[in-house]
Amino acid sequence: MLKLKKFQVLNFRSVEDSGWIETDQVTALIGTNESGKTNVLLPLWKLNPAKEGSISPTADYPRKHYNTFRHEKPKPVFIRAVFEIDDELVSKISEMSGMPTDAIRQVQVARSFDSEYDVEFPNAKPVRAIGRERVLSILAAAERDLAVDDLVDHHRASLQRRGQLFAGPCCPGGVVGEQVEQHVRVDQGALGAVSHLWSGP
Known about the structure:
- It is elongated and about 85 Å long.
- Strands 1, 2, 3, 4, 5 and 6 form a six-stranded antiparallel beta sheet that branches.
- The chain is α+β, with helices and mostly antiparallel strands.
- The protein contains six helices and six strands, in the order E-E-E-H-H-H-E-H-E-E-H-H.
- A hairpin with a 2-residue loop joins strand 1 and strand 2.
- The chain has two domains: about 1-120, 3-Layer(aba) Sandwich (Rossmann fold), CATH 3.40.50; about 130-200.
């Protein structure tokens, strides 16, 4: 479950930049009629609408930026929101990503005018160290891949030499060449399967 902590509206209708609006159990927006309260809340609804929620360029783009936004690619972001993640979901994400729970307690979700989403964890820091066992595992996998590639190249050269030996009036080189390539593709697939078995689960 996600709990909204704060949100920001950018270049949506009459709102140029709302700044970060913090939310609590009860949050009130107070203003006179036509002051822009709806234009602050509507982007938040469009972040993850229950239905509809499509972007309407003529209605949602700021009038002064309409021509710019219409041709701009990628389209700019119009809503950002920061959510707090509950313990159960944090544990699942931590297990999948290997990140500490404190680093992924909050998530920021943004939506742009071309309906693209961007998700990031603002408190997460990139991994700057890799364990010795992980490094050795990566190097071992790379060595296996190189060995399989060398074996495939050797097998391809061997089959091509056979094709040249058998090429002649009774065996047109083109036909033999096609047969050699078929053998190489088949053998390469078999070697790939063997490599997968070597790699283990």
